Amino acid sequence: LNISMIIIVTQGTNGMKKYAQALNSQQCYSLLHSYPLYIIMDDVYDDCQLHKDKFFRRHCTIVRFMKGNINPNDWLLVMDADIAVINPNMLVL
């Protein structure tokens, strides 16, 4: 199975700095298990910026990203920026 990880960060927040420790743990985990990790700002797609609700913007961004970057049979693990990896030995599947 091809598994990738994605984190959507809200533009205009200091999420990258605020959650640096959690993001670092996710980066280490993705490298350890060869899972590509994508950290994307929620304003990267113009049509997603139209949505006022940040959660809907996140969903829109994920869908747009998947359409252009993920094959139909691949898996995508969506993570929040504030989630730290506790046990790096556990696999996604």
Give a written overview of the molecule.
Pfam families: DUF273. InterPro entries: DUF273, Nucleotide-diphossugar_trans. This is Nucleotide-diphospho-sugar transferase domain-containing protein. It is a single chain. With 93 residues, the chain is an alpha/beta fold. It is 40% helix and 18% strand. It is built from four helices and three strands, in the order E-H-H-E-H-H-E. The protein has a three-stranded parallel beta sheet with strand order 2-1-3, with helices on both faces.
Enumerate the strands of the largest sheet in spatial order, edge to edge or round the barrel: 2-1-3
The helix fraction, in percent, is 25-40%
Strand content: 15-25%
Count of distinct strands: 3
Q: What integer is the average pLDDT?
A: 92
Low-confidence runs (pLDDT<50, min 5 residues)?
none
> For the report, how would you describe the main beta sheet?
3 strands, parallel
Number of helices: 4
Span between N and C termini?
Answer: 9 Å
InterPro entries: DUF273 (IPR004988), Nucleotide-diphossugar_trans (IPR029044)
Protein name: Nucleotide-diphospho-sugar transferase domain-containing protein
Pfam families: DUF273 (PF03314)
